[in-house]
Specification:
nine-stranded mixed beta sheet; alpha+beta; 29 helices; single chain; binds zinc ion; five-stranded mixed beta sheet
Length: 1037
């Protein structure tokens, strides 16, 4: 899966994974999710008599018999709810669960009663006890894993989504299972589904028409989202049985499970489509299934559609047959799939159109979109097959399916999802129109396409045993996507961009005490959804890149290819990969025989954070003492974390009298048992040394003052002697070491002195990104004016050198450099920039049909600053263009820019619009509006008040806490008052913050760090500015 951020987007990715809208045990709100409430209404209105049970979220009623109406009102009282016992342990745990077992700390829950419910449909009294929590925190052990008694082999799934009807889904499922351990229970996952209990049958394979085994009890475990059929007799170990049932599901509007999306066609007619998003735990919303990644099976799918639509799924259609007795409906019957995990199953029913081609190896490749947007899919169709073919070669493993579909969905919560053979995208991640969209939008498209195609091997062919190893999926796809882009667009220098887009950003998150290890035990869906974060993606990608370099390219590819071959159609854990890579490394002699990849990589995956390597040279310079220490922005004196952080560090370095930045294999290994080592044979003290060549190691480097001075001198004398990536590294390390108090700001800002000669984008971007922190910290202080003048002195020469006129023929990184320079010059209110922006926008307002007036690369700057400096008129024009546009990235750009206005009432109205369903802003884009308002100096307090005041409504809107909203509005909090407000906010909403619990810890820590930084550095920066001619004081004479 890909998050919904990317190049050119301001918002962080954390929390941008699909909204796993699951609210286990929530005391808040309604027990029936909104979609289900609508469903109930629909059934009521249509008078449909359902004969099953509403499963999950449904009111904790004791239900008797299977013919009861669905419309039992929810009990307002909590007193008599049947409650399941806590601390249940599962006696039949499969081995893999040991790492995934969950201990969830529950906060004090006031006087609320937490309920866990099992509903039975027999007259026996449910096995329940009641616990009421009244204050003290308690530990809760919930094993959410399925019992290890049954293994699914094959599913037959038949679904008829009533897209243009009442949104119900008429379903039938048969699942053939092998019995691993004799049992009288069949337990599988189910959520927001109504089973028809009288249709539920369990029969031995091969005797499906026989009497079968009698189901004596149907049980529903809401907490675990289990359906359990209790049988009169045991299923025999080693035998195969088939469970079958009819059920009714619901096409929700929550962007998960099997859901509905809407759009207007070229005539303005509203159209509907039905689409799936299952990762991580939502296949169970579409059909009852064993919804764990380790339980692979083959799937045979039937989708019913009306004849004026079409359907797609993972495999090709083998026949289309009429639906009996239903005029205008047909069944599309799909070929049986390869063995795969449930989260990768996908269905789409739509009236979309497609373009197609075939790859070299004759795989049919199709791209689907709304008919009026189809031409925007041409770029994806160009790069997709090229990258697919390249990956076949790179992984040395053919793409196993006969076809690959990709489809752009108007409503989509993540960036994209790698469903096998049917990749789903949000429109901006797959569609690109060169006349309308910026170069960064184009890179976003090819990056996401490459990422999802990489998953076809890494994730789909070989799948993690459990979500603990999610990082393997996402880290690999996030790294290999750069290899894919580099193949499709070799002139873009994406391998240089990697450090900017991934490493520098995740370094910042991973320097908090509240970070987390990349490999983390998870169980509950709330926990699973939290690890679709930057640590899994960007740190995962960064340490895999490090491994690629210390193993060398040939060894890395050999190990990968062997791993994929050994585990194809099966599941694996990180240790399986380490073994294959170690074997390859020992064969190729790229690692010493007594050193394994596991030994090295465990120090990077099982503990959080990363080291700073301190290099201190001897007085004559010819040797250096190298030490390692965890890099933290602030070391808490009272930290409870007593773990001793040490890593296996691949040290690479080069020297001033013979610079060579290409040898990225470890020259020396620093062991995790070593705090200091000595590096001999360095040049004399007048020559610099640089460690971490091309920043391939996931660590920062600090030097003694003399070496820093040598580096500054070298940059001033001839910066090109130092590799471009290392120039960016030196800037980023220096500024972050200064932020953490490990290097003087005088030294860090001294590095900036050479920038007047810098022409490359990557070092410039590293420099500017790091200045953003100073700018944000000082924005509301008296020192800001002087800082602004300093920043303008750095930026204006760059602005002048790139010019306001854009050229799409320039190299990509030159286009990015111009985009960055202009956006900063305008942000710093450089008069020429603001005038240009206003003039071009005004020209466009006078010629609204002429879309070529503003170069796509400059749109974000022009829109934002024309609206910021303008009035209601400019804002309204942007809104009308937003409504009119047929291009997703253009709509995004306008949505972000409308958050730039300084008119408080417009910002307030805009926030309200974002979270209402009929405003014209899609639910998937609400975070963008919120983030834009929060990024605006005028809007931030407004957004923060809005989040506090409207928390319940926002929670309801998403069905969960959205960590990215909290992160975006608090990222620059730096006052004690703001910290108090944040803590109060956490206390008040602790019940709702399950899915954002880590995020809230992180933003509180970040705020504390910012406050500490202000206390320790504000005066330092102001003095430095004064001393360097940027006076912060007005003349008093
Ligand atoms: Zn992914």
């Amino acid at each position: 899966m890909t998050g919904s951020r990317r190049a050119g987007e301001l918002l962080a990715m954390e929390g941008s994974h699909p909204e796993h809208v699951i609210s286990f045990g929530k005391s808040k709100g309604c027990y029936v999710s909104r979609g289900v409430a609508v469903l109930l209404g629909v059934f009521f209105v249509s008078g449909l008599v359902a004969t099953g049970l509403l499963v999950y979220h449904y009111a904790p009623q004791e239900r008797v018999g299977s013919q009861e109406s669905l419309l039992v009102p929810r009990t307002p009282s909590t007193e008599r709810r049947p409650v399941m016992t806590r601390r249940r342990t599962n006696p039949t745990k499969r081995p893999a669960t040991t790492r995934a077992n969950v201990t969830r700390k529950k906060p004090p829950s006031g006087t609320k009663t937490k309920t866990k419910t099992i509903i039975t449909t027999t007259t026996t009294i449910p096995f329940t006890t009641t616990t009421t929590t009244t204050g003290e925190p308690f530990q809760e052990d919930i094993d959410v894993r399925l019992p290890n008694t049954l293994k699914p082999l094959h599913y037959l799934v038949k679904l008829q989504p009533l897209i243009n009807g009442n949104f119900s889904i008429l379903g039938y499922v048969e699942v053939e299972m092998e019995v691993l351990e004799s049992t009288s229970n069949v337990t599988l996952h189910i959520a927001d589904i109504i089973t028809k209990n009288e249709t539920i049958r369990v029969a031995p394979s091969g005797d499906l028409d026989g009497p079968g085994l009698r189901v004596i009890k149907h049980l529903y475990d809401h907490e675990r989202q289990f359906y359990l059929a209790h049988l009169e007799e045991e299923l025999q170990q080693g035998h195969k049985y088939v469970l079958s049932m009819e059920f009714t599901g619901y096409l929700n509007d929550q962007l998960h499970g099997f859901y509905r999306s809407t759009y207007r066609d070229a005539d303005g007619t509203e159209k509907m489509l039905a689409v799936t998003q299952f990762q991580a735990t939502d296949a169970r919303r579409a059909f009852p299934c064993f919804d764990e990644p380790g339980l692979k099976a083959t799937f045979e799918v039937y989708l019913a559609r009306s004849t004026n639509m079409s359907s797609i799924s993972n495999m090709p259609i083998i026949e289309t047959i009429p639906v009996e007795d239903e005029e205008g409906w047909v069944w599309d019957h799909y070929d049986t799939s390869v063995p795969m995990s449930t989260y990768l199953v996908a269905f789409v029913v739509s009236d979309f159109a497609y373009l197609s081609t075939t790859t070299n190896n004759k795989t049919l490749f199709r791209v689907w979109a709304r008919e009026s947007a189809l031409q925007q899919a041409k770029y994806s169709l160009q790069v997709g097959p090229a990258i697919l073919t390249h990956f076949e070669d790179y992984f040395n493993q053919s793409y196993p399916l006969p076809k690959q579909d990709m489809i752009a969905i108007p409503d989509f919560s993540a960036g994209a999802m790698e469903n096998w053979g049917l990749i789903t995208y949000r429109e901006t991640a797959m569609l690109y129109d060169s006349r309308v969209s910026a170069a960064s939008n184009k890179q976003y498209v090819v990056a996401v396409v490459a990422h999802e195609l990489a998953h076809q091997w890494f994730g789909n062919l070989v799948t993690p045993v459990w979500w603990t190893d999610l990082w393997l999926n996402e880290g690999f796809a996030s790294y290999v996507e750069y290899i894919g882009i580099n193949h499709a667009e070799p002139t873009w220098k994406v391998m240089e961009q990697f450090v900017l887009n991934e490493m520098h950003i995740v370094f910042s998150l991973d320097s908090l005490e509240s970070s987390h290890p990349i490999s983390i035990p998870v169980g509950h869906p709330d926990e699973i959804s939290q690890i679709f974060d930057r640590i899994s993606y960007a740190k995962g990608a960064s340490i895999i890149r490090m491994m690629n370099h210390f193993l060398t390219e040939a060894t890395f590819r050999k190990g990968l290819s062997n791993y994929l071959d050994a585990f194809k159609y099966e599941n694996a854990e990180q240790d399986d990969l380490w073994r294959q890579l170690t074997t390859a490394a020992h064969q190729d002699d790229t690692l010493p025989q007594d050193l394994t990849v596991k030994t090295i990589m465990d120090t990077w995956t099982l503990q959080m954070g990363y080291p700073v390597i301190k290099v201190e040279r001897s007085p004559d310079g010819t040797s250096a003492t190298v030490s390692q220490e965890r890099f933290l922005l602030v070391k808490e004196a009272d930290s409870e974390d007593t773990h001793e952080y040490k890593w296996w560090v691949p040290l690479t370095y080069t020297v001033g009298d013979d610079p060579n930045f290409n040898e990225t294999r470890a020259k020396v290994w620093m062991k995790d048992s070593e705090t200091h080592i000595t590096i001999p044979s360095l040049p004399t003290k007048d020559q610099w040394v640089i460690f971490n060549l091309q920043e391939t190691g996931y660590y920062r480097v600090n030097y003694d003052q003399d070496n820093w001075n040598l580096l500054i001198q070298q940059l001033l004398a001839d910066h090109r002697v130092i590799n471009t990536i290392n120039r960016a590294q030196i800037i980023d390390d220096a500024m972050n070491l200064a932020k953490a108090g490990q290097v003087a700001y005088d030294t860090a800002l001294g590095v900036y002195n050479y920038l007047g000669k810098e022409t490359e984008f990557v070092p410039w971007a590293a420099a500017i990104n790091n200045l953003a922190y100073l700018k944000e910290m000082l924005a509301r202080t008296g020192g800001y004016g002087a800082l602004k003048n300093y920043l303008l002195d750095i930026l204006v020469p760059l602005y002048d050198s790139v010019g306001f006129d854009d050229s799409r023929d320039d190299p990509l990184l030159d286009q990015y450099k111009r985009q960055k320079a202009l956006s900063w010059a305008c942000e710093l209110e450089h008069p020429d920039c603001l005038q240009n922006a206003a003039a071009i926008y005004a020209h466009w307002m006078n010629n609204p049909e002429n879309s070529s007036i503003i170069s796509p690369n400059l749109k974000s700057t022009v829109y934002c600053h024309a609206i910021a400096e303008g009035s209601e008129k400019e804002w309204n024009f942007a809104w009308s263009q937003y409504l009119k546009s047929n291009v997703g990235s253009e709509k995004n750009g306008l949505l972000s820019a409308m958050g730039c206005t300084k008119q408080v009432w417009i910002l307030s109205r805009y926030l309200e619009m974002a979270f209402s369903s009929d405003s014209g802003i899609r639910k998937q884009d609400a975070f963008r509006v919120f983030g834009a308002v929060a990024a605006n100096e005028v809007g931030r307090p407004l957004a923060w008040s809005f989040l506090q005041d409207e928390w319940d409504a926002i929670f309801e809107f998403y069905g969960k806490a959205k960590s990215r909203l909290i992160k975006s509005v608090t990222s620059y909090f730096n006052t004690v008052q703001q910290l108090k407000e944040l803590r109060l906010f956490r206390r008040e909403h602790i019940e709702d913050l399950d899915s954002a619990s880590r995020a809230i810890r992180q933003v509180i820590e970040r705020t504390r760090i910012n406050i500490a930084w202000m206390n320790g550095n504000y005066d330092v920066i102001v003095n430095w500015l004064d001393e360097n001619g940027y006076s912060t004081k007005l003349s008093s004479a």
